[in-house]
Amino acid sequence: MAVKNVFASRWGVVLVGAVIGILAPVLQKLGNPGNMGICVACMERDMAGALGLHRAQVVQYLRPEIIGFVLGSLVAAYLFKEFRPRAGSAPIVRFVLGVFAMIGALVFLGCPWRAMLRLAGGDGNAILGLAGLAFGVWIGTLFLKSGYTLGRTQSTSATVGWILPLIMLGFLVLLVLFPQVPGEPKSGVLFYSVKGPGAMHAPVAVSLGIGLLVGFLAQRSRFCTMGALRDLILFRSTHLFGGFVSLILFAFLTNLLLGQFKAGFVGQPVAHTQHFWNFAGMALAGLAFALAGGCPGRQLFLAGEGDGDAAVFVIGMLVGAAFSHNFGLASSPQGIGPHGMAAVIVGFAVCLWIGLTLRKKTV
Hints:
The chain crosses the membrane at residues 7-27, 61-80, 92-115, 127-144, 156-178, 198-218, 239-259, 279-298, 310-330, 336-358. This protein is mainly α. It has 15 helices and 4 strands.
């Protein structure tokens, strides 16, 4: 109980943000792509590619960090008796929100965690992304204040809560059985990038270990980037926001120490300079996160503690990654994809419709 209280406290959240802020640049130093030591959206995109859900050959790798996030959260939930299988809160809506959250994130080229890490690495384009994230979350808070709800979850069988952790265990087995063969684009059933961001990764054991640690700590602290902005806007609460700031600060200091800081807008790793679409893509993602009740990292941690609805959101993000690359929605360092603009507009329309129609009372 003492450990639980430490990590759930204001300074506990700051500590967890600091740990993530230090470990993410270390993962980058050990092989992960630039300013992408940890990016839930990018890593889930790579996993979708590794499973053959899309065929963008430069982003295919079964990222151990994501597996670790879920399993680390699972371990923490069991140790502290917080594994609570539950489901039934508008799962199909959460799936759709996961799809559009991923589409928006891949227009920007990063989740909220990567937006902070990009800023900490000197990427000025991240300023537009973070501003868009805050704007999208702000729109979401307007719906929350006017009665928006996805309904109550219900307790359910432990089997439901175990589904996503078991899927992640299955992915880990596949990674062990079919390791990458140098220079080969496929090993057994898994696809592997031989160039591009997907070919850049830290050693599997290190990535998995850090993922397990982050999953454990985040489950204990309720770390959530979207929640930090939502609580700041709605309640003027800085409890979670302290972790948000801490992550950026410690990532910045670690990047300086490791020689990975490069200030500017042009020539940043896996980034583009179309400022409006950096803003709009992350605004769409922020709105979807707010309507779904958590950022992509938080959804993984919730799934690890038995939340079947969060698991549906995660699956939606994987499908959204497949759509993004199969349909030309995702951006690249050259700019937004050929159909990315239309996807952002459609995504906003769908999310606004969800927010407007799932209110218990009118404004």
